[in-house]
Amino acid sequence: MDKTIAFLMAPEGVEQVELTEPWKAVKQAGGTPRLISTEQGQIQAFNHLDKGDTFAVDATVEDVSAADFDGLVLPGGVANPDFLRTDPQAVRFVRDFFDAGKPVAAICHAPWTLVEADVVRDRTLTSWPSLRTDVRNAGATWEDKEVVICDAGPNVLVTSRKPDDLKAFCQAAVDAFG
Questions:
Q1: Are 140 and 120 in contact (CB under 8 A)?
Q2: What are 44-101's pLDDT values in tens digits?
Q3: Measuring CA to CA, which residue among 86, 64, 71 is closest to residue 11?
C-alpha cells in the first residue's frame, strides 16, 4: 500500500492504543501515516483517564486538505472527538474526505466528529455504545459489531466500538485504504 493516511486528533484526549495500533497497521502495510491536529507541536494521548505518551504533530488542519491524503483515521477517546467536533476546520477536513470519496476509519467515540460533519445519514456504523442515540438521530443505522464496513455512500466507512475491536478495525481499515 503506497498511500498516505491522515490521523486526525485534538491536542489532547485521544485514546493512545486507538492511535498507535492503526498507525502501526498502516506502516506495516507500507503506508505513510501522518498526525494531523488543530495545533502545532505535540498531542497528549491518554490510557483511559491517565496521561499516556505525547506524539509529534506533522501538520495542522489549516495547512492540509483531504486532497493531500488517500484516507483518514479518526481515533477515539472521549475528549478527542468532543473537541474536534467543535472545531470548524477539523469538521470541514473530515467532511472533505467523504466529498472526495476517500475511505475513512473511525473507532470508539470518533463517530461524534462524523455526526457533526453530517456524513452519516443513510450509513451503517458502530461506535462506543453511548453514541448509539447520537448516531441514530443523525440518520444512521447503528449496529453492535466489532467492525462495520459501509459502502452505501460516497466512500468506504469503517467503524469499530472499542479498543478490544482493534485487530478487526486495523485489518478492515488497511483493506479499505488498499
A1: yes
A2: 999 999 999 999 999 999 999 999 999 999 999 999 999 999 999 999 999 999 999 9
A3: 86
DSSP letter, residue 102: -
Identify the pLDDT of residue 65: 98
Residue 1 scores a pLDDT above 90: no
> What is the three-class DSSP state of 44?
strand
The one catalytic residue in 14, 19, 108, 138 is 108
pLDDT surpassing 90 at residue 171: yes
The position carrying cell 486532497 is 67
46: part of which helix (H) or strand (E)?
Answer: strand 42-47
Q: Cα separation of 66 and 128, whole Å? A: 26
At residue 118, φ and ψ (nearest 5 deg) are 60, 50
- Which triple of cell numbers denotes residue 132? 448509539
Burial 19-31 (b: 16+ CB within 10 A, else e): bbbbbebbeebeb
Q: How many angstroms separate the CA atoms of 46 and 91, rounded? A: 22
Catalytic-residue membership of 150: no
Count of all residues that appear for the chain in the document: 178
Categorise residue 53: left if φ over 0, alpha if ψ from -120 to 50, beta otherwise. beta
